[in-house]
Amino acid sequence: MSRQLWNKGFQPDEMIERFTVGQDRELDLRLARYDVQGSLAHIRMLCSIGLLTQEELDLLVPALEDILADIEKGEFVIEDGVEDVHSQVEFLLTNRLGDVGKKIHSGRSRNDQVLVDLKLFFRDELVTISNAVQSLFDRLISLSEEHKDKLMPGYTHLQVAMPSSLGLWFGAYAESLTDDMQLLVAAYNIANQNPLGSAAGYGSSFPLDREMTTELLGFANPHYNVVAAQMSRGKTERAVAVAVAAIAATLGHLAMDVCMWMCNNFAFVSFPDELTTGSSIMPHKKNPDVFEIMRGKCNRLQALPNELALLTANLPLGYNRDLQLMKDIVFPATTELIDCLQMATYMLGEIRVKDNILDDPRYDYIFTVEDVNRLVLEGMPFRDAYRTVGMAVQEGRYKPTRSVNHTHLGSIGNPANEQITAKMERLRQHLR
Ligand code: ARG
To answer: Fewest Cβ atoms closer than 10 Å to its Cβ: which of 3, 282, 319, 371?
Structure first.
């Protein structure tokens, strides 16, 4: 038996219901607590404008708080035949309180209700992501400090190029995460605006106090124009997607480096046996499957902005049911990203780093620029010094002096980890 808020006396077709409800009964569980928070703010506002009496409010608030407690305990379900979380909460209220439960939807539509749920959800989810980014950042900075003095080859065109260090390598990903944090902050600011009161998308003839719900829900400001508020469904998700994809790009790149540095031909890093995986035929194998899965997942996550753009391309203005499908795409994606971030942090906690990598003669040419610069400091013009060292290489006479002396800001000898940490700290302030 299906129960719809919009029931007008006929039973909808079951096939139609299954098709249109889709994954909402599961996915909406993630919105449940926010749905109740939104309703609590809405009914307080309705009371302030005389659409609910104080007595009614005093019945509704504890009943909603009970539902919230069930949600926190994991005891809330969206029953078969109930379309979504918004319907379930209203049915529960009406079952418990009778007619007063039916009053809470004045001046509201499920369109602004799901929007407010999503905004509150994304705010929290972005904070969770930023915490996971911060943990990985902290690990990378501490590895950078720990391995500051360990040199490794730097590559261009995947050919041996110039001296680098493990400190620079770890620190590079830390600083790269600060760029991603900028996008997280931007997505957070876009999400942190109140759509409640836009109702179906065109406002209401009730004198809704939108400033009041904005304050009750802790939003930075209302999304003022009711049509713009509805347009933010989709726009908010795309902003979140851009941030998710950026982090995934950074993490996927890191995962690729680790796979490569674990390759026996490089062997710059390794992990304890229990963090590697084996082969069913080759008894010697210790494979980097964790980082391969991470790389694959992160590559898929980078499709997120495109998936959303295609889903929402050329939709007519105002609510359209297509928008529901964004939940199917975005909810698993943020979970996946958090999982990858936590796994990276966990794995890097156990990473082992090879000492004296540059003693291997295959990296001798790493030092050519160092030797050119030494000649320059001794007074030789750069182009002559370049030619001198170049001829030695060409004729097989080149012998590296193996001294590396990089001191400028952001270089091997001065990776600026303090400045990078301060930059991250400043960005994170915006998410608290
Ligand atoms: N499940 C719907 C969604 O996510 C809720 C809003 C339904 N609104 C409507 N007009 N059918 O979009």
So the answer is: 282
Task: State the Cα–Cα distance between residues 239 and 185, nearest whole angstrom.
Answer: 10
Q: Which atom of ligand 1 is nearest to the CA of 21?
A: 1
SS3 (DSSP) at 303: coil
Phi, psi (rounded to 5 degrees) for 151 = -80, 150
Summarised one tens digit per residue, pLDDT across range 174-184 is 999 999 999 99
- Cα 127 to averaged position of ligand 1 atoms, centre (Å): 26
Query: CA-based diameter of the chain, in Å?
Result: 95
CA distances from 363 to 168, 169, 307, 402 (A): 18, 17, 44, 10
Q: Name the helix (H) or strand (E) containing 194.
A: strand 193-194
Q: Provide the angle, in degrees to the nearest 10, between the axes of the packed helices 417-428 and 166-191.
A: 10
- Whole-angstrom CA distances from 420 to 86, 178, 426 are 44, 8, 10
The per-residue pLDDT for 2 is 64
Note the pLDDT of residue 367: 95
Contacts of 346 (CB under 8 A, 6+ apart): none
189: confidence class by pLDDT, cuts 50, 70, 90: very high
pTM of the prediction? Answer: 0.95
- Which residue puts its alpha carbon closest to atom 1 of ligand 1? 324
Q: Whose CA is nearest to atom 3 of ligand 1?
A: 324
Site to probe by mutation for ligand 1, drawn from 83, 114, 121 as the one with most ligand atoms within 8 Å of Cβ, is 114
Give alpha helix (H) positions in 147-225: 166-191, 210-216
Query: Which of 20, 30, 82, 84 is the pocket-test mutation for ligand 1 (most atoms within 8 Å of CB)?
Result: 84
Measured distance CA(342)–CA(323) in Å, rounded: 30
Atom of ligand 1 lying closest to residue 83 CA? 1
Q: What is the DSSP letter of 266?
A: T
Cβ < 6 A, ligand 1 pocket: 24, 84, 110-111, 114, 319, 321, 323-324
What letter does residue 359 receive in the DSSP assignment? Answer: G
What distance in angstroms lies between residue 109's CA and the mean position of ligand 1's atoms? 9
Q: How far is the CA of 223 from the centre of ligand 1 (A)?
A: 19
Average pLDDT of the chain? 95
Q: Tell me the per-residue pLDDT of 266-291, one tens digit each, with 9 for 90 and over.
A: 999 999 988 888 778 777 878 889 99
